[in-house]
Structures are given as C-alpha cells and as structure tokens.
Amino acid sequence: MTEKELIKEIKKYWKQNGWYVIRNQQNIGSHKGLADFTILKDGIVIFVEVKGEKGRQSPAQKLFQMDIEGNGGKYCLCKSVDDFEHYIKIIYTDMMS
Description:
It contains three helices and four strands; from the N terminus they run H-E-E-E-H-E-H. By secondary structure, the protein is of the alpha+beta class.
C-alpha cells in the first residue's frame, strides 16, 4: 500500500472511531521531523507518522520520535491500520493496569 492510500484509509478509521485528527504540514519554520498527524481521544494525544510499505523514517523523524517519547509523549509509526490498532491496544491496556 502506498503512503497516500494508507493516509486515506487510516483517516477514515480515525473518523469512524472518534479520534480528533490534526494534519501537520512541514513548512519553513516547522519542527524538523514533525509527525504527519497529531490525534486526540479520551485525553490521549498521539503523534503519528504514516509510511507506505517501503517508507522509512528520516533521521529528523527518528530524533522527533525520541524527543516525544523521551518527554513522556506518545508516538506511533504506522505502516498499516493494524499497526495503529495494536499500538492503541497497548496504550489502553497500560491505562487499565
């Protein structure tokens, strides 16, 4: 699946499941490596980077992920809707324990 196809699919999934979605645009002055999306639901904020089958994070994206997670934030690298579903199950499981 291409990144464009996955973005369309995952945005549909988020909408159907009540996530508030912000599409982050990389522009002059933006934080280098900024994730593609910031999504929110039930007080949970997740930065999401979407990659197609062959896509890889840039060094700036890896550094952004480390900075977010190092400061207690949530970051998900998604190559499929299944990746996101697995990630969110882990988050909710951790919240319940």
